[in-house]
């Protein structure tokens, strides 16, 4: 890579990350931590399945086949069939698309709502910061599931509404994360240097500070993906989630509970799909967090010192 | 000093309480459609007589500015007037209060069970770090966090109610009527709540205990010649209990959601089940009331946790 020697911003740029390719970093990470390996492979599997979609299955997603109602796992139907003879595996594959779509959308939304709030609060300071902080504390007192239930019930379930309902209670986490990140980074030399060079606050925030607080944000995003899908599935189970034509694992389990005794596979397999999804993102998130900053693990007890 | 601190903390809670109530109030305001019709429970095109409509509109004070409406509403709340339930046709408070008791049994019982199991388990897995026992405990944590609650509850019903027939799968009996039956009904839901909370408590207890074991005061205690058991179970545990307390406090909000799911699976007549039913019947007066109860429970428990720090940790001083 060629860097012109006269380029000031290159001279004052923050220390670059160790020159290792992303792919090699990922492999190294997976090798050093078994959680990352297992979780990462599971994650890739889920994403691949969602991308390929239910089209790979020879069975139709929605068409009932009354000849094969409520059959247990077999060669033709690996995970059995439901009440009206639909293939459970095909429907689980379709469910993975909804799960990823809803959870990814919700987390991205929470990030894009929360991060600017935290950044503005910490950068401006004073009463703006105090106001943002109080509002975030207030939202955090709400049980995320209950809040999502109320919002969805009021506005009716749709993918976008689910994004908002699930994201709402996650917004404070990003606002606080970015706020504390900006507060610590603001005093660093490289920010002073950038300011001395006359960069605008927005540019400093986006180009200088943001890359340096990406690590904890990445951890939070991974863990929140797991949280988002567990909220989505709970909403669906409670009958407040997406309705047909969407297929959600939570709805599949809800439909299966009347047949628990005669056809347990109807509830067991979607539940396993769900648990695997949450497991994958939790494992990767935990492994990432331990790698980024081992001291983060004790951050809970740090609360005590501040109070 | 503790009294002064408590008073101070209570004053600090005021802005938070305002934010919380505002969120509840304005969420109800952004309901698509006519708020009068929503409050009357007539969302799906039901016919409402003009008098009823006008009476509700007047009651809601919808002709006044929004901020006035909010403070009126808040003032009514503070006096215990949550409005009239649309489906029950009685004051919402009268609908909610009797259902609060079964929920409290579930929450308190679940929390106690979780702490009794998770704290010693967390300590043991920290002391015997990287042994078979530790791996067992960590696997339990990972499973406890990943397995969806409603699914766990269904599996529990399948095993203990359907196959073994030991316990009833749904329902509730008041303890003063038949205590044995009460215990039978409450065991499964309570165990599901406890397992869920225990996973999180165990995780943090183990982690914090591991961190504490390498602190200077532990070395000092050992150097004084105290027995290993005394050092670990008295000195270290006392310090890491602060983490446990914090975790329990932080779990309160989560617990309300958990309760809603568990109560629904077991048809358990608490406020969580009431919340879901009210959502389905679009009885938003009750929904509002239940959400407020849940949120204030979270706030109060966290306040109590803050105050308890002083009891557990003498280093914590309050100005």
Instruction: From the alpha carbons, calculate the radius of gyration of chain B and give it in angstroms.
Output: 24 Å
The CATH superfamily of chain A bears the name MetI-like
Which spans of chain A of ≥5 residues are poorly predicted at pLDDT below 50?
1-16, 294-307
Question: Could you name the CATH homologous superfamily of the largest domain in chain B?
Answer: MetI-like
Describe the model.
The complex is a heterodimer of chains A (307) and B (319). By secondary structure, chain A is an all-alpha fold. Chain A has one domain (42-306): MetI-like fold, CATH 1.10.3720.10. Helix content of chain A is 69%, strand content 0%. Chain A is built from 14 helices and no strands. Chain A has helices at 8-12, 22-32, 34-52, 88-124, 126-140, 144-155, 159-168, 171-185, 189-196, 201-212, 214-237, 249-256, 265-292, 299-306. The longest helix of chain A has 37 residues, at 88-124. Chain A starts with 7 loop residues before the first helix and ends with a helix. With 319 residues, chain B is an all-alpha fold. Chain B has two domains: 17-78, no CATH class; 99-312, MetI-like (MetI-like fold, Orthogonal Bundle). Helix content of chain B is 76%, strand content 0%. Chain B is built from twelve helices and no strands. Chain B has helices at residues 2-29, 35-39, 50-60, 66-78, 92-127, 132-146, 149-163, 179-212, 216-223, 228-265, 271-280, 284-312. The longest helix of chain B has 38 residues, at 228-265. The radius of gyration of chain B is 24 Å and the shape is globular. The N and C termini of chain B lie close together (8 Å). The mean pLDDT of chain B is 82. Classes of the chains: A mainly alpha (307), B mainly alpha (319). At the A-B interface, helix 5, helix 6, helix 11, helix 13 and helix 14 of A face helix 1, helix 6, helix 7, helix 8 and helix 10 of B.
């Amino acid at each position: 890579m060629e860097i012109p020697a006269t380029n000031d911003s290159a001279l004052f740029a923050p220390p670059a990350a160790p020159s290792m390719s992303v792919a090699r970093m990922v492999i190294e990470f997976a090798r050093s931590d078994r959680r990352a390996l297992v979780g990462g492979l599971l994650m890739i599997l889920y994403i691949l399945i969602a991308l390929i979609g239910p089209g790979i299955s020879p069975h139709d997603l929605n068409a009932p086949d009354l000849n094969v109602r409520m059959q247990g796992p077999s060669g033709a139907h690996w995970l059995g069939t439901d009440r009206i003879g639909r293939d459970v595996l095909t429907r689980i594959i379709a469910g993975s698309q909804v799960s990823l779509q809803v959870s990814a959308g919700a987390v991205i939304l929470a990030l894009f709502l929360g991060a600017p709030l935290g950044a503005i609060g910490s950068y401006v300071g004073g009463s703006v910061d105090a106001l943002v902080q109080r509002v975030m504390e207030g939202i955090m007192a709400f049980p995320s599931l209950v809040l999502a239930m109320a919002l969805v019930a009021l506005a009716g379930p749709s993918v976008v509404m689910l994004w908002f309902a699930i994201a709402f209670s996650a917004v404070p986490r990003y606002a606080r994360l970015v706020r504390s990140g900006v507060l610590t980074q603001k005093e660093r030399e490289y920010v002073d240097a950038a300011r001395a060079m006359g960069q605008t606050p927005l540019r400093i925030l986006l180009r200088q500070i943001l890359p340096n607080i990406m690590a904890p944000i990445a951890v939070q995003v991974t863990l929140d993906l797991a949280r988002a899908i567990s909220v989505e599935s709970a909403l669906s189970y409670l009958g407040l989630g997406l309705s047909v034509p969407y297929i959600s694992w939570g709805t599949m389990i809800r439909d299966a509970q009347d047949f628990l005794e005669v056809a347990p596979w109807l509830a067991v397999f979607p539940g396993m799909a769900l648990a695997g999804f949450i497991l994958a993102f939790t494992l990767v998130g935990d492994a990432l967090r331990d790698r980024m900053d081992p001291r983060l693990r004790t951050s809970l007890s740090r609360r005590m010192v501040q109070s | 000093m503790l009294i002064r601190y408590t008073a101070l903390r209570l004053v600090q809670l005021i802005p938070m309480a305002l934010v919380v109530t505002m969120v509840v109030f304005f969420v109800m305001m952004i309901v698509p459609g006519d708020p009068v019709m929503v409050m009357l429970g007539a969302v799906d095109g039901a016919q409402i007589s003009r008098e009823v409509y006008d009476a509700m509109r007047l009651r809601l004070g919808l002709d006044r500015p929004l901020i006035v409406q909010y403070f009126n509403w808040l003032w009514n709340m503070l006096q215990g007037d949550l409005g009239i339930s649309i489906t029950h046709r009685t004051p919402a408070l009268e609908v909610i209060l009797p259902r609060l008791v079964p929920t409290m049994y579930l929450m308190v019982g679940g929390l106690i069970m979780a702490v009794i199991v998770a704290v010693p388990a967390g300590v043991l897995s920290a002391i015997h770090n990287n042994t078979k026992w530790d791996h067992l405990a960590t696997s339990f944590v990972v499973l406890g966090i990943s397995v969806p609650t409603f699914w766990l509850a269904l599996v529990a019903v399948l095993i203990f109610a359907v196959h073994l027939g030991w316990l009833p799968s749904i329902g509730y009996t008041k303890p003063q009527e038949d205590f044995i039956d009460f215990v039978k009904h409450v065991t499964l839901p309570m165990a599901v709540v406890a397992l869920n909370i225990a996973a999180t408590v165990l995780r943090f207890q183990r982690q914090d205990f591991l961190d504490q074991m390498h602190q200077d005061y532990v070395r000092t205690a050992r150097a004084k010649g105290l027995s290993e058991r005394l050092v670990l179970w008295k000195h270290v545990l006392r310090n890491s209990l602060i983490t446990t307390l914090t975790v329990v406090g932080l779990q309160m909000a989560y617990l309300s959601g958990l309760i809603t799911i568990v109560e629904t699976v077991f048809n358990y007549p608490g406020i969580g089940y009431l919340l879901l039913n009210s959502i389905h019947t679009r009885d938003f007066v009750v929904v509002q009331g239940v959400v407020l109860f849940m949120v204030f429970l979270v706030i109060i428990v966290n306040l109590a946790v803050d105050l308890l720090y002083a009891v557990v940790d003498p280093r914590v001083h309050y100005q």
